[in-house]
């Protein structure tokens, strides 16, 4: 098994700087998951809804959520 891990520090040197552009994570809309409803009020007919967001490191681009998951206790 292989996986990406950037370690505790930033691969670009030093600590991560969480001042990069934010990203929004999305998941399938539970109201129209199988077929996109032509009148879905929850997702606006796009089939996805936001499920959270995170800042990114302005040096390496890693998002803070992934960093937290990789270094969870």
Describe the structure.
- With 73 residues, the protein is mainly β.
- The protein has a domain at 20-66.
- It is built from 1 helix and 2 strands; from the N terminus they run ββα.
- It has a two-stranded antiparallel sheet.
- The longest helix has 7 residues, at 64-70.
Structural class: mainly beta
> How does the overall form come out from the CA principal axes?
elongated
Strand content: 15-25%
The chain-level mean pLDDT equals 84
- Lateral arrangement of strands in the main beta sheet: 1-2
What distance separates the N and C termini?
20 Å
Radius of gyration: 17 Å
Characteristics of this structure?
single chain; mainly beta; 73 residues; two-stranded antiparallel ribbon; 10% helix; 1 helix; elongated
What's the short version?
The protein is mainly β and 73 residues long.
Write the layout of secondary structure elements.
Layout: E1 20-28, E2 48-56, H1 64-70
Antiparallel strand pairs: 1-2
């Amino acid at each position: 098994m292989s996986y990406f891990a950037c370690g505790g520090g930033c691969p670009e040197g030093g600590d991560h700087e969480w001042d990069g552009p934010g990203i929004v994570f999305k998941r399938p809309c539970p109201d129209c998951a199988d077929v996109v409803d032509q009148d879905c009020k929850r997702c606006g007919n796009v089939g996805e809804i936001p499920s959270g967001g995170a800042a990114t490191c302005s040096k390496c681009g890693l998002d803070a959520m992934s960093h937290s998951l990789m270094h969870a206790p």
